[in-house]
Amino acid sequence: MKNVALPVLTAALLAFLFSTYPGSLDTSHAAAPKKAAAKQIDNVQTGNPGFKRIGRLGFGPDGLLLVADPASAAIVAIDTGDKGPVQKLKKKVSSVDELIAGAMGAEADGVEIVDMAVNPQSGLIYLSVQRKQDARYAILTVNADGKVGVLSLEKVKYVKVTLPLSKGATISNITGVEFSKNRVLAAGQSNEEFVSKIYSLPLPLTHGSSASVYSTETYHVAHGRWETRAPIRSFVPYEENGKSYIVGSFSCTPIAKFPLDGIESGSKVKGTSVVELGSGNLPVDMFTYKKDGKQWLITNTNRFHHAKRPLGPSQYWGVRVDMSYLGSEKTNEEAVRRDVSAKAGPDGIEVVEQLFFAKHVDKLSDTEMVVLRDNKGHLDLEISPLP
Fold it and tell me: Would you place residue 78 in the very low, low, confident or very high pLDDT band (cuts 50, 70, 90)?
C-alpha cells in the first residue's frame, strides 16, 4: 500500500482493502452510464479524472455528479448513469461510519466524511470520504438496503472545468458546488485580497474550459461591518423576478444574496444581507423546499460556541427560513435577526428539531431529507421528514 502514489482510492484499491476486512464491498450500484447527460456536458472524456482531493458534492439532472477538487482548482462533472427510479433508504443505518471506515481499510475515527449528496432521481446517497492516515480519497455510495459501495473512477465519462486564478494565487477550499438553471455555481476561498469567491460555469460544462469568477463583499450583521475575507460556507441558486442570484450563508451567521446577471468575470459583487441567524455558528449545508404554498430555506450549522452558549442538546443544529425574507426591504444593518432566546421567531424563522445532531443533510424531496446524524461519537444515516 505504501507504494501507491495516487491520492485517490480507486475501485481496485478499495476492493483490495475490503478483501482483508469482514464484509465485502458492494459495487453493484456503481453501474456504467446508460447514456451520456448530453445536454449538460460537452467534450466528454472517458477515463480517470485524476482527482487530487475530493471535496464537496452536488447533483445535476440525469445522474450528473458534481465534484469539487480544491487541490486542482477544478470542478469535475461525472455522468454516473444513475437515473432512477427512486429507491430511498429503507431504514436507518446505525454506525454507518464503521461501514465506511471498513471500506477504506481504517477504524471509524480514521476517516472523515467530507460531504454527502443524494441523487433525487434515484435516492442513492453519495459520500466523499478521506482516509486520514494517508489522505486518500474516494466516493462511496449507500443504497436503499444500506449497503456501502464504491463509485469506480477508472473509466467514467467526465468533464473537468478549471477555476481561474490570478498570478501566484491559490484556492484553499471550495465550499460548495450546485447546479442551477443555466450554469453550475461554486463558492470558495483564495489567498487573494478578496478571499471570498463565486465561480460560474456555463452550461454545457465543457472539458478544458474555465469558469467566470467574482469576488464578494458582504455586510456581516453580527460583526457590524463589510467584509471581503469571510467565504460563503453554504449556498443555493435563487431566482427572483427573472433575475439570478446566489444565496449564501457565512460564519456567525448572516444569510445574503448576490446578483449574478450581467457581471463580467473578475468583477467584485456586493451582497445584500437579509437575515442574521446569530453568532458562533459555522454553516454546513443548505437547500430549499416547498410546503403549504411557501418556499423554505433549510440550513444546518456546527455551533462552535456550543460549550459557552448552547442552543440545544447538540452543537449540530439547524433552522428553516421563509424565503420571502429574501425580498425584504430591511437589509444589511437593518436585516432581520433570529430570536436567539427562543426556538422560533420572528415569524418564518424556526429551529428545526430534526436537525439537532445533524452533521450533513441533503434534500431527497419536498417532504424528506437525508440526514447523517451524530450518535454519541458515531454516525447514523437516515431519512427524516421535512417540517
Answer: very high
Grid coordinates representing 29 are 450500484
CA nearest neighbour of 381 among 129, 164, 190, 85: 129
Type of residue found at 98? E
Q: What is the DSSP string of 269-309?
A: EE-EEEEE--SSEEEEEEEEEEETTEEEEEEEEEETTTTTS
CB neighbour class for 62 (10 Å; exposed up to 12, middle 13-18, buried from 19): buried
- Are the C-beta atoms of 194 and 228 separated by less than 8 Å? yes
- Enumerate the domain spans of the chain: 11-157
CA distances from 226 to 216, 220, 221, 271, 337 (A): 10, 6, 9, 10, 17
In degrees to the nearest 10, what's the CA dihedral of 12, 6, 20, 132? -140
For cell 450549522, what's the residue?
Answer: 301
Say which residue, 341 or 287, is predicted with more confidence: 287
Q: Is the pLDDT of residue 223 over 70?
A: yes
Helix or strand (DSSP H, E) at 97: helix 96-103
- The least confident of 86-90, 217-221, 254-258 is 217-221
For cell 469558469, name the residue: 211
Instruction: Please answer whether residues 140 and 151 qualify as being in contact, where contact means their C-beta atoms are separated by less than 8 angstroms.
Output: yes
**DSSP-assigned beta bridge partners for residue 381:** 93, 372
CA distance to 63, 184, 198, 323, per residue, from 36 (Å): 9, 18, 28, 35
pLDDT number for residue 341: 86
Q: For the whole model, what pTM was predicted?
A: 0.91
